[in-house]
Structure of RNase H type-1 domain-containing protein:
Amino acid sequence: NKDLIEKALYLIRKRKAPTQFIWVKGHAGIEGNERADKQADQGRLEDFGDKLEVTIPDNFKVTGARLRGLPFKLLYVGTLNSYKKPVRATVKHKGIREDAQDEVERITGNRPTITMIYKGIRKAPIQNKVGDFIWKTIHDCNKCGSYFAHWKPEAQYCHCGELETIEHIVMRCEKSEQARVWDKIEKGWKALTKSEWPGISIGILRGIGSVQLGTAHKTFWYKILISETAWALWKARNERAIND
């Protein structure tokens, strides 16, 4: 009832005449009190409450309280009510997961479920520590780029000057060795499987646990090459950041 009380107090305060409150004993046959009880009971039975269309000017909005007259319980509840919980980026994460599904479907012809994506990074041949890295990539919570925005802004950027994202670190940075590394991985894949390279993208990395390429041999080597290479590039970036 905080909003209703605030509006009621505003209506009282804007009166020019003094307003006095008198405590009366309930259910004692006092006419005004009895009528108030009836109105309250009538309002309780209504499906929708009456809207009090009142706009409170800023100069009537009072914040804070006198600590001397403030019970601890009221202080505690007020603090909890004023705290705004951070909004979870569910829409963003949903888009990331859908991109992973799209990319896996593009190279395999089959669309994985979200459960398959998560369970896949906890199974061989993907190592546990690499699976943890991919999980963070799915949730976009790797410690890079915007992670540092609020307390170390200069650390948001790669040594090439671009904003660091996991995609930039693993696949896009022109001043690092990504292009040369992935070229070698492609050649290694072709030598091992005698087949065309399916390619690599950030969506494929996030969905790598759910990839099935027709044969166990191809699936095994693709998961190994993608996950271990991305992990190695991420570690190389961390070492460079520490040394710098």
